[in-house]
Amino acid sequence: MVARVGRVKEDGLPGHESKLEPKPDWEPHYSGSGRLAGKVALITGADSGIGRAVAALFAREGADIAIIYLCEHDDAAKTAEIVAAEGRKSLVLAGDVGDPKFCEQAIKKTVKSLGRLDILVNNAGEQHPDPEIEDITDKQLQRTFQTNIFSMFYLSQAARPHLKKGSAIINCTSGELQRV
Questions:
Q1: Of 19, 39, 40, 83, which is least packed with CB atoms within 10 Å of its CB?
Q2: Biased composition, Basic and acidic residues: where in the chain (predicted)?
Q3: Does any domain span residue 179?
Q4: Residue 8 β-bridge partners
């Protein structure tokens, strides 16, 4: 953590879900119906939160999962265990989705290892909020757009040649409301 003018600035993003208390509730509460049997999904940010929940649910429905994450190896390993417990295969890839070369490699490795790509879930995201807009640095703004916006383009562009009729690209976004 880095202190700034009486405020604390988060420095170690995105963070480890394994360290959260209480733990997020991601477990599916229903029996799968096989709706995604034989499909392969690549999910960014699948090491925790919404990404982990999507990976668990897609695996329960029969999909094999490529788990893309930045650097939380313990969290990604837990997601891989969850996928395996559903009887599905997983591929775990660490890297920066804001890097177009990593995005291209992740798609290629997914297709090579899992045989195809049917669903791309652009879920990874980060934010570097600051109470005062004047305090947001160029670096904070660029990093946020690199991860949250550019990655959707890079991954979709790399995935497109592998997607067939009936495939899907799902883009997740979020926003933070602030009072003025």
A1: 19
A2: 7-28
A3: no
A4: 3
